[in-house]
Amino acid sequence: MARQFTRSEFYELVWSKPMTHLAKEFGLSDVALHKICRKHDVPNPPLGWWAKHAAGQRVKRTPLPKLRSGIPDTINIAGGELRNEPDSVAQMREEARVRASAFDPKKVDPEHSIVTRSMAKLRKGKPDEQGMVRLAQSGLIDVEIAPDSIDRIELSLNRIVTAAQVQGFELSGKAERAEFTDGSVIVPFNLKEAVKRSQHEPTPEELAKEEKERKRRERRWARNDWDYVPSFSSFSHWPEWDYAPTGKVSFEFDLYLRYSSSLRRSFKDAKIQRLENMANDIAVGLAVLASAKREDDRRAEEDRIRAEEEARRRNEARRLAYIEDRRLKVLDLVFERVETIRVCDAGAFAFAAQVTNLGEEPIEVAALASLQIPLPATAEALVSWRGRHSAELRECREAMPEHRWERVTRRGLSGHGGPPGVYVLDRASGWDRGLAWAVQLAWSGDSEIAVERDDEGYWHLSAQATLATGEISLATGETYRAPEALLAISTKGRNGAMAQQHGAVRALVDWPGGSMTPRPVHLNSWEACYFAHDAQRIARLAQAGSSIGIERFVLDDGWFKGRRHDRAGLGDWEADPETYSDGLGPLATKIRDMGLEFGLWVEPEMVNPDSDLYRAHPDWALASLDRDRPTARNQLVLDMRRADVRDHLFARLDAILSQTPVGYLKWDHNRDHAPSGGASQTLGSYELLERVRTAHPAVEIEGCAGGGGRSDAGLASFVHRFWTSDNIDAVARVSMQRGFLAFLPPEIMGSHVSASPAHATGRSQAMAFRAAIACTGHLGIELDPDALADVDRDELARWIDFYKQWRHLLHLTRVDLGEGTDQLLWQAHGNRSEKLLFCIRTSPAQDRRPQPLRLPFASERPTWQVRLLAIAEEAGHGLPRAELFDRMAGEAIGFTGSWLAESGLPMPIQKAESVAVFHLEAAA
Questions:
Q1: Using alpha carbons only, what angle is made at residue 13 by residues 7 and 16, rounded to the nearest 5 degrees?
Q2: At 621, is the secondary structure helix, strand, or coil?
Q3: DSSP line for 370-403
Q4: Other C-beta atoms within 10 Å of 678: how many?
Q5: With contact defined as beta carbons under 8 Å apart, do 23 and 13 qualify?
Q6: What is the spatial distance between Cα 419 and Cα 742, in angstroms, rounded to a whole number?
Q7: CA distance 14 to 22
Q8: What is the DSSP letter of 61?
Q9: Counting CB atoms within 10 angstroms of each CB, which of 125, 260, 825, 890 has the fewest?
């Protein structure tokens, strides 16, 4: 709550107690309170005043000056969040100020050897394209400034070093860069000069050079010299930007504090106060930060001990509960084989089977089908999906088999063809009509889906996890449980069966807090920088994302020790000390301060032979005895059947999530299993995921396997999102995402906006088209927003706003798919009263006039109001469109439900690679 004072009241308050104590009462920092005093011309006690007062010395107040024109006589202070600063830190602040009050660095002329060597190295350095000289040498100061600022920075640094010595700190050059230390705490720092960027104005010489090249091209082309290909450099003769150093330098301490994030770390040139006059302020800040670091370490150790004890108690409770649950279930079993069927949300059925050994001798389970059902003789077609890396989910339609049809996976994963499943369509069955069956096995390992014709004129459908020979051996009383199979049966075609599958999967997803929150817009770092990590570059990337509406930043592969490429580092899950010298904490905090959630890429089930983990435990890799160990993507698979492997991986992940504010894990898996680890490998991965979720229930997880290699209902209980494919080309994504939606709902479908040209295909598409396609799932960005032209960045920001406005209709609602004429595809998201309709054209129309689009779902309501929200297409030459669509873009037009269902919605002419988006709302 805000508090109000007159100047005289505030003056008395300021002189009644130290500023640090008073600041706590207001919930502000002492720096903020000093600013309020300066703004209202209220003097406050100088450094050392309170120490002298406490010692009984005679001290005087500075009188309150008369009220000057333009300064208000009332002071309003709004309450802030209390900093909860420990007493030891507050005491150190006062002591440091007393020491600083007796020392004037301007009256000494010190020269420190590290400063002298650093400045000498800078003077020899060559400025980069921005006019900056960067010092990157072991034992010297981390600084990036213009040559004209070197003399001033040398003076400032010598003063700072001398002032720091007064506080008990020495400048040390023993590490990768110079740091301050008092023997117990090391405090890194850096200096950087700001740079101003402006659009480059071409010079007459540059314009003349371009004109000369243009005329040269025209002459060659006029001679029909079609073999002539201009060089890349001939298209641009000047840089896009000019850079100019500003002379404004900042000094920043690079110290991550988990509990005291509000302490001042940065000191910058301002209009009145310059860096060379801030030595004492910086030295006091150094002493305070060091004290806070010691307190931080003490509290972190207490938290670690407390967390370990709590984890021990939880694990013991789970162990005892498991033993009791197993005992009761074994006692309750009566039959050797037990099959159960339960009804899922939206009407699907979940089939389960288990077998128990009631005999006295061990038995081996060779196979156990989760589902076995008959299909009628009227069944006509099978629809399944196959795929590979970057070409997932290609739809395959086949006639019912005369003998036996199988969909089998043997690579240890559900595969790039999507979940282990199949659709069976009856005669005349389509998207919205006819009898349809859809089966999905909730399993992430090897599987077998089979359809076989019998001699009775029917077909027999089965689904099961594949078991290795001798893998499942049951002693007396032991039970093997097969994974569930989800069965949807609908008389309303593929869309009806799809809705049932979505409802069943949605019931499996365990959202943090118990329910789904609006799916935040991602920015993933992978295609923006790949392995070229730099903490400052990553922070700039996150800031660029924040400026266009990004809500979650995910730091992808390349952040951990030794990871400069994909040949090393997997298994060593610690921040790379060269790139992130203080760990990921400072970067994560900086990104969270931007208002973004911080996410992190991991690949726990994999290991590089070139890693500390593999050198220490080569026996942990999934391998055959006395056989070579060929790698794929330069990596091996860890043996998740082993408890010690799972314990080690959990400890590493738990440490990361406990020490760094990570709210999201992108959990990758980039190669097949060879040799196979069998079903136990999959169960081991499930067990590790379960432990991580239990220990960190607020953390969301994304399932990824070289793209879409492990997207299935079996993993849905542990993750909250699937990465559909590493191919983000928008045209390629249209069919992939429709295949994904056959079994899994859109809110867990990762769909990103790619760069153009797309990295996977080299094709280019308009920003609007790329963004519109990505909006149909869980929207993300896979590029550097700062690298975009202004028009594309603005367009992307508009589509991000569009997604945020409509994601309540895009997610946790029904999805209907369909096809129009002339290769037009459509999908609708929403409820019975409100829909968002996407009409997608990937290739040029063959007909001059588009036919109306029939929307079967519209028959459920008598009247609809339809508005055209956008046509996402390449800017430029426009196509003629009827006046109706201009009206529809400005106001909703009424249609009866029967007209939309039977005659159809009038469609505008669309270019290739375009999306027309409509909003339909049932009239009251």
A1: 145
A2: strand
A3: SEEEEE-TTEEEEEEEEEETTEEEEEEEEEPPSS
A4: 21
A5: no
A6: 9
A7: 7
A8: P
A9: 890
- Show the beta-strand stretches assigned E in 638-747: 664-667, 700-703, 721-723
Pairwise CA distance, residues 768 & 763, whole Å: 15
CA distance 18 to 282: 20
Helical H segments across 232-371, by residue range: 279-332
12 token code pair = 């008395």
Q: At what angle do helices 678-695 and 279-332 cross, to 10 degrees?
A: 130
Is residue 267 pLDDT above 70, yes or no? yes
> HSE-up of 427 (CA within 13 Å, CB side)?
3
Q: CB of 77 within 8 A of CB of 36?
A: yes
Tokens of 595: 């208002």
Structure confidence by residue, pLDDT tens digits, 442-499 = 999 999 999 999 988 899 999 999 999 899 999 988 999 999 999 999 999 999 999 9
Alpha-carbon gap, residue 860 to 832, rounded angstroms? 7
Q: Show the tokens assigned to 544.
A: 């660029």
Average pLDDT over residues 755-760: 96
- 134: Cβ–Cβ under 8 A, 6 or more apart, which residues? 125, 128, 143, 144
CB atoms within 10 A of CB 264: 15
Q: List the end-to-end C-alpha distance of the chain, in Å, as a whole number.
A: 44
Q: CB–CB of 197/242 below 8 Å?
A: yes
The burial class, CB within 10 Å (0-12 / 13-18 / 19+), for 610 is middle
Please identify every residue annotated as catalytic.
668, 726
For residues 591 and 598, give the distance between their C-alpha atoms in angstroms, rounded to a whole number.
7
Cβ contacts of 502 within 8 Å, gap of 6 or more: 346, 741, 744, 745, 814, 815
Estimate the share of the chain in helix, then strand, then coil, as percent rounded to the nearest 5: 35, 25, 40
Q: What is the pLDDT of residues 344-395, one digit of tens each?
A: 888 999 999 999 888 788 888 999 999 999 999 999 999 999 999 999 999 9
Residue 333: how many CB atoms within 10 A of its CB?
16
Measured CA to CA, the distance from residue 774 to residue 677 in angstroms comes to 36
Cis peptide before 675 (omega within 30 of 0): yes
Q: Residue 230 pLDDT > 60, yes or no?
A: no
Q: Is the peptide bond before 105 cis (omega within 30 degrees of 0)?
A: no
Return the residue matching tokens 């089908």: 369
| Assigned token pair, 641 | 């059947």
Angle, CA of 314, 319 and 324, to the nearest 5°: 125
| Contacts with 845 (C-beta within 8 Å, 6 or more apart), sequence order | 822, 823, 909, 910, 912
How much is the CA Rg of the chain, to the nearest whole Å? 33
Are 400 and 381 in contact, with CB atoms under 8 Å apart? yes
Give residue 695's pLDDT.
Answer: 97
Tokens at 665, concatenated: 């894990």
CA distances from 800 to 33, 794, 867, 915 (A): 39, 10, 20, 16
Residue 702 CA to residue 749 CA, distance in Å, equals 10
Give, in order, the Cα–Cα distances in Å from 434 to each of 424, 427, 711, 713: 11, 7, 28, 25
Q: Which of 248, 331, 260 is nearest to 289 (CA)?
A: 260
Q: Tell me the backbone φ, ψ of residue 434, rounded to 5 degrees.
A: 90, 170
With vertex at residue 165, the alpha carbon angle to CA 160 and CA 168, rounded to the nearest 5 degrees, is 130
Note whether 437 and 493 are within 8 A (CB). no
Among residues 213, 130, 222, 117, the alpha carbon closest in space to that of 173 is found at 117
User: From CA 128, how far away is CA 123, in angstroms rounded?
Assistant: 13
Residue 15, both tokens: 């002189």
Cα–Cα nearest to 411, from 740, 645, 669: 669
Instruction: Give the tokens for residue 713.
Output: 């209902």
Between CA 305 and CA 314 the distance in angstroms is 14
427: exposed, middle or buried (Cβ count in 10 Å: 0-12, 13-18, 19+): exposed
Helix ranges (H only) for 15-110 are 19-26, 30-39, 49-54, 87-101
